[in-house]
Design a protein that fits this description.
208 residues, alpha+beta, seven-stranded mixed sheet, two-stranded antiparallel sheet, 6 helices, 9 strands
Length: 208
């Protein structure tokens, strides 16, 4: 009976190890075909997703003239980031991508992004490039004329925080309306998963 118990435990650990190896080897990609690298312009020059390998990148598509959705989502993200300790925050890079390049120059983006968090980078690019990029991430935006407004138009857009892992692959999506607590849970779950190591799954004493 005791032998069967240990064999059962070994089976469970082996199954977990196989699953973990799949995740860390890239074969268990959660959003196949989505996400991917890109290069945009920021106040500090070109910024590419590959620049942040080894960090978790939190990407949000929006625009600085957004009256409510962007401030709400970025405000919640900012509140969540403030709950992280220094070690956790050192592994995080927030990135705000403007889908309104006509009005959002890089200087304006820098000021807007830093309002929510000093580490947040604001970036944008040409409209056609942004459209293709948003599509790859599953984001949506379109220009919507606004009558009797000095703005002239608004930009209807989806509101999701895309979480990119340290290897540059999309690992999570946090939908609009998430509270700072909920966003924090998502971020820490990704951090915890990345700290997981296959070598820790099977305790050495099992084979003793």
């Amino acid at each position: 009976m005791k032998k069967h118990f240990w064999l059962f435990l070994l089976f469970l650990f082996s199954t977990s190890a196989t699953h973990a190896w799949t995740l860390f080897s890239g074969k268990g990609e959660r959003y196949p075909g989505m996400g991917g690298d890109f290069t945009l312009q920021s106040a500090e020059g070109e910024v590419s997703l590959r620049d942040f390998r080894g960090k978790i990148v939190l990407i949000y598509f929006g625009y600085t003239s957004c009256p409510d959705v962007c401030p709400t989502s970025l405000g919640a993200l900012s509140a969540a980031l403030k709950k992280l300790d220094k070690k956790e925050m050192a592994q995080i890079q927030p990135l705000f991508i403007s889908v309104d390049p006509e009005r959002d120059d890089v200087k304006k983006l820098q000021e807007y992004s830093h309002y929510f968090h000093p580490k947040m980078i604001g970036a944008t690019g040409k409209l056609a490039y942004l459209q293709a990029l948003a599509k790859r991430y599953g984001a949506y935006f379109r220009k919507a004329p606004v009558e009797n407004s000095t703005l002239g138009y608004a930009v209807d857009h989806s509101s999701t925080i895309y979480v990119v892992g340290k290897d540059g692959k999309l690992v999570d999506m946090i939908q609009h309306g998430g509270s700072p607590k909920r966003i924090l849970e998502h971020i820490r779950a990704v951090l915890k998963e990345l700290e997981f190591r296959v070598s820790n799954i099977v305790p050495p004493y099992i084979f003793g």
